[in-house]
Predict the structure of Diaminopimelate decarboxylase.
Amino acid sequence: MENQYLVELAQKYGTPLYVYDADKIASQIKRLNDAFTGVNLKLKYATKALSNISVLKWIKKHGAGLDVVSIQEAYLGLKAGFDPKDILYTPNCVSIDEIIEAVDLGLTINIDNISILEQFGHRYKNTVPCCVRLNPHIMAGGNTKISTGHIDSKFGISILQMRHLLRVIETYNIHVIGLHIHTGSDILNPEAFLRGTEIIFEVAEDFSDLEFIDFGSGFKVAYKEEDVTTDIEMLGKELSKSFKNFCKARGKELELWFEPGKFIVSEAGYFLSKVNVIKTTPATVFVGLDTGMNHLLRPMMYDAYHTIENISNPSATQRVYTVVGYICETDTFGTDRKLSEVRERDIIAIKNAGAYGFSMASNYNSRYRPAEVLVHDGTDQLVRKRESLDDLLRNQIIVDFE
Ligand SMILES: *Cc1c(COP(=O)(O)O)cnc(C)c1O
């Protein structure tokens, strides 16, 4: 999006502000669909990346289903108009009660541990189909907090426990229609995926009722210009080929599922804030923003790099700044960044903020969460109001000590 337009949006709606480019979301979905040929590809957008209902509706309009990790995300998806069957429910460490609720809603159920699978089988036998999440123990992911496939990970049923898993399925006559792996976010190269697929093709021989295989996600996007990203086209070509062979050998056309979050929405998002203060210290020059890690946690939580630009003074001389938030603990967005000269009240854009931006925002320091704007079909539309004091007080019950 053009800097000038973003500055206008910041003025129109105020800051801090999340802005999403709907066209970019649509083109990312298209890019995935185009990369896979001759296979029955189904995309299940990972809701947790960005769960604004208008965004979900836009994603539905472009043909994707949803992957949800909580019953609450499922309710958001239903509110957005998704068919329950097109919502894959992939929770971790939830109680059987929540799974029963998901079954009652008609979601597609993905189970990731043997204890719950036994309870599920005991209750439903073969009357409710399910998918099982396997852990193929592929070490991948850019950060241990988001690596989910390694041996010590809490996610999935280990392929080393396959005999136990098969015994449970047989005992209760469970109707397993899908196999799922998700090896973590930020996977650097398609090799990890392709290794995972080989493992799962082998394992699939023990499951006769399969209708789909879900390869999870982890597609990387470029946060820095020189970042290596997942070669989607190469992955699509290779995996389409091996998947077709797999289906042919099985004598059945299965669906190939992916559940990307970041890939679909990250680059569509801009996080806009205003410079409150320029603070020169003996060591550095700080740019202090009217936001903080409460609104964009990734830099502090994952050491994530986000491109930062001064969009209201773009052609000035470049200087070096450390860009920080207003939270009362260290909350740095970027250290020693080159920005065109920053003045108080300038508008700063943080890029790649669509995924895990607003969805991880909190009220820490009792700050209001930002507004969100969706730009689609040439118009900008407010899709979430900025919070107010009423939102902070909403569920509080105030004790009268008189
Ligand atoms: C978080 C998550 C995803 C999405 O990961 P991205 O890196 O955002 O693409 C997909 N599937 C599951 C089960 C997840 O937990």
